[in-house]
């Protein structure tokens, strides 16, 4: 019976060891192993004994589920995609990271995977962020418009293939174009064709898409490419500074009509405004008649606003109107001061920049208002293909305008106007005069705010202030006075006497005694 008992004991121990080994979490490999600087790369981590549950809500459940990090000098989380994760696979999306190599790290239900239980080959657990795997957005046209408008996006697109479903492992696809919280659709489903897309052999190209949603405000735009790419990285200069924040594109409303065109000078007339996209998501709607607010009556809807008019405003010879500037263009002359507005064509622009090609000799006048977003000290400059002139009024009255800048520069760091303090939300009238006969003609009004709330990391239009600091000091030799004293009487002080005994054979040896660099003779 004893041999049988020993056999049973050994068998039970074997089962226990096997059970422990089978519960060890191991990471076998990851794919893909390259991705975008701006994140959005979908990584699949293969392994064994990953978490069974990703329900981590509620007290005591914070550590449930598998978690993934990409580590170098800094660790970055990889956002878990629960629907693509189970006991033998974790799916996650990378976040924006600098170019470089990263090592995958995994924890399961709050317990880190042991270093010895990662990929058999170290390179199978490495992820590399490169510029070559980063799609880009270099230009967006136009920069603003109504909801539902078309955009043209240029940059590094990589592919012309488009699919809005799950990634196809065998093809590189544009999965989705994001327009704020909505999407920008690439395909015309009625015609079953793309609105427009083209890519050259270097991956550079453009696509056209139709915006969705009715939100009025600032939008960021990006697109996502599967496999070893990810989310697009916009050019920093595309992040425009608006009065209500930063965005790559801005939507605005449309006014179609008014219920009445006349009313009492004392005010009190109910005015019904019809249009589209009257959106109050970010802030209540404001209506102005002349330069005074028209009291809005609640409720409003997407297409109709009713307000009560104010009393008559001061008689103004010039009304600011809505957003943008007017451009008067006359061909055949280059002197903008002799432009005849009766002969000129009129164009409305939504930015303080105008450009044209192959127009021959021409002259323009730009007319509009500058409304600062912040109170502060501003300076102005003109970027132009030829000499241009900026007239600015420190009020809304055109009659107060003075010459503020003349010339043409490529960068406003070269030359600017004098600095002037302007107040937020006030309207300052301005005019620009420009004439040229160049093939590629352009003029842009640029402003510089000395004290900006935005940093270089938030928009490419901001620059960090650079200061050169020189620190000097005078070097003086330290002088110390030492006073040595003794508590004893100098007359009674006797030298220290020491006796040194040397034992052993000394027939072939010579001895010297030394103290603090002073030595006896041999």
UniProtKB/TrEMBL annotation:
This is PA14 domain-containing protein. The gene is 106067833. It comes from the Eukaryota. Keywords: Signal. Residues 320-463 form the PA14 domain. Residues 1-22 form the signal peptide. InterPro entries: Fibrocystin (IPR052387), Ig-like_fold (IPR013783), Ig_E-set (IPR014756), IPT_dom (IPR002909), PA14/GLEYA (IPR037524). It holds the Pfam family TIG.
